[in-house]
Amino acid sequence: MLSLLTEVSPMIQEAYEKACTLYGSSIGKNPNELVTPALILDLSLLKQNLALMNGLMRDKPAKLRAHIKVHKSPHIARMQVEAGAVGVGTATIWEAVIMSRAGISDVFVINEVVGAEKTRVAARLAHETDLKVAVDNDSNVNELSKAAEKEKSKIGCLIEIDTGMGRCGVSSANEALKLAERIVRMPGLRFEGLTGYEGHCSLEFHKAKREFMARKAMDYFVGVADYLAKNGISCPIISAGGTATWELTASNPRITEIQPGSYAAMDGYHSGFDPRFKQATTVLATVISRKSDHIVTDAGKKTVGGSQAILKDYDYPIHRYDEEHGIFDIYDPCPLKVGDTVELSPGYTPFAVSYFDVYNVVENRKIVDIWPILPRGPEHGGLLNLFNERAS
What is the pTM of this model? Predict the structure, then answer.
């Protein structure tokens, strides 16, 4: 199914071909025949989620920018763009490289890109794609400007506003104004607007309280944009929102784009906020031991991550996850025996994805393709070396 990815770089083509060489013997099989643990992607559910978001966004004033840190897949990212996203968001410059090489022309690193090697890669990548990054301090702005000027490129900058999460971001409208004025003066940079993630709201499961928190965060956020406008600096892009708050944020007429990512493949945590999106990613595991009161699978924390995964199709509670073991309490009658395979639904998909090389893409209970998971960092796939010499 590489036909999903037209106009891709040799890097993406080679990654796909390598994945198929290593794991392609599974194509055509029932997923229960896989060597476990294995990562499964239900293609029908993925398509259903993408179509649902596209339909729900049609009457929203904001546009959709799909975050790809959740799945790290060029295939899924292209499908998100083809399903209506204006571009993608990434967590790292290395993810941005992959997205650009997958043929996506609008890439926003929704994070600070700091350090000589990372800013050099950003400056060179800006020749290939409409690259934007988040910034929140003078030092980083100076570093980005120096790198872009040396490479004769332009990097788009959005000032990150701390809307309540207590992570990155400037802490006041006046601080944002001073930083914006600096960006406007710096060579090699474009001031694009503001970004702010109200991720702290996703910790609140009470709907009314969560919506109150999100509205408060966005009122403050757009207030910063108003303050900049009053001082002569407009914000073409005002970007916010995640899967837990996407609909409320996308309905705000002042927000130009939202940045959700989990909606595509979904996970146990975010499905609690919006059950309309179905969990498309699971981990296949094998029962390796059975006792009178519990079973043990071969998928533990090193496979599903710190956010524990529940048994799909069985109502057996989690007893404990160890590094290589998932332990579940059972009660009679329990049909599972040693050697049986089960699917685990991750609580937070990005943790599970980071442990695997590929997705086993399943449709109608048959493996139809193998999709590589890229990237993990500068050493993965030689990403840093790609920019030792600028591509012609």
Answer: 0.94
* Cα 294 to chain centroid, rounded: 34
pLDDT at residue 116 is higher than 90: yes
Rounded to the nearest 10 degrees, the angle between the axes of helix 93-101 and helix 74-82 is 70
What is the greatest pairwise CA distance in the chain?
A: 71
Q: What pLDDT does 380 receive?
A: 66
Residues 236 and 164 in one domain: yes
User: Residues with Cβ < 8 Å from 31, sequence gap 6 or more?
Assistant: 38, 40, 284, 360, 362, 365, 366, 367
Which of 229, 247, 266 is a domain's end point? 266
Paired sense of beta strands 155-160 and 189-196, if any: parallel
Same domain, 315 and 186: no
Taking the chain, what is the end-to-end CA distance rounded to the nearest angstrom? 29
Residues 35 and 49 both lie in one domain: no
* Residues 98 and 217 reside in one and the same domain: yes
The per-residue b/e assignment along 232-255, b for 16 or more CB within 10 angstroms, e otherwise, is ebebebbbbbbbbbbbbbbebebb
- CA angle, residues 264, 269, 273, in degrees to nearest 5: 75
